[in-house]
Amino acid sequence: xxxxxxxxxVLAYSGGLDTSVILRWLQTAYGCEVVTFTADLGQGEELEPxxxxxxxxxxxxxxxxDLRETFVRDFVFPMFRANTLYEGQYLLGTSIARPLxxxxxxxIAEMVGADAVAHGATGKGNDQVRFELSYYALKPDVKVIxxxxxxxxxxxxxxLAFAEQNQIPISRDKxxxxxxxxxxxxxxxxxxxxxxxxxxxxxxxxxFQRTISPEAAPDVATEISIDFVSGDPVAVNGEALSPAMLLxxxxxxxxxxxxxxxxxxxxxxxxxxxxxxxETPGGTILLAAHRSMETITLDREAGHLKDSLMPRYAELIxxxxxxxxxxxxxxxLIDTSQHSVTGRVRLKLYKGNVITVGRESPNSLYDTRVVxxxxxxxxxxxxxxxxxxxxxxxxxxxxxxxxxxGGAL
Length: 409
Fold this sequence. Notes:
Blueprint lengths: L7 E5 L4 H14 L2 E8 L7 H9 L5 E5 L1 H13 L17 H15 L3 E3 L8 H12 L4 E3 L10 H10 L15 E4 L4 E4 L29 E8 L2 E5 L2 E2 L2 H14 L4 E7 L5 E7 L1 H17 L2 H20 L5 H13 L5 E8 L2 E8 L7 H4 L12 H18 L8
Parallel strand pairs: 1-2, 1-4, 2-3, 4-5
Antiparallel strand pairs: 6-7, 7-12, 8-9, 8-13, 9-10, 11-12, 13-14
Helix pairs in contact: 1-6, 3-7, 4-5, 7-8, 9-10
């Protein structure tokens, strides 16, 4: 339901056709002052054109901010501490960006005295949910404007017509309908819609933007190392890097070796299935390295508990509950598990594959004296295994004695 008593609104603004139309529509339909906010999350686009276009609309308060370091440090890295995958495959590149954009929108709204925020997400997708759950968690009384749920501009033809009627500049290459939509940030790019909607049809190579094909990757493996401190990566090949620079470096390695492609049919929170083509080159490398680091630094039961909670944690992020109390609770548990996850992992990158070839840590729980097949000099008494096995077999023996054979429960 539209709320018309709005005095000032902060719009998440990219400068593209959709959000430019939204900007003018807000000015005409609501008669309110519009503040624009454009975030650099590493999408690889020049953002100054967005500022200049906002100026053409007479916008007095324009925010264009580089949030790449904040994005990776405060959102991507905490998520990767959990080895997070939605439905076993998706590294949540779009999902994890939305709470940061929403958070900064609310901060700007408080700063400029705005009583509303607006976004350009459609009424069919997940992003509307992610944005708005975040808005309400951070500012319960905020007014939210979602134009795609209100206006009658339901086609690209209508958007273009509105743009022409309102003197909204549109570059020539944007007038034709794009064959698919793209969302990108420093963690990933996603492509979906139109020519990609049939899950039976393989995507054309032109769809991929962040990676070369595995077939075109070098015939010689690339070897790298990643250093971790308390669960977060801090260096590549011994060179200390900031969070955003480290992910950028891993993206370069992933791109050159055809790593991180995913063709996925997923279950959207709003109820439908959708097909997306994802590229997460650096994130795919980071996930493999982090899991390898945990194999020698995490206690077995602690690691298994953490893995059992991961699907729930992933679902919370995918569905837009980053700022929920349950996500914060899970994050506290996950972060506690990472205190010992420090050390170095060595990897080979080869034609779409990430292969661990070595891992070492000052906190390693791996003890060669215990696991050796040679003389362990009393580190492990093999006779103890007999009692261990008998105790674990007790319930099985009792069940068999009671006649519950053949797999009966």
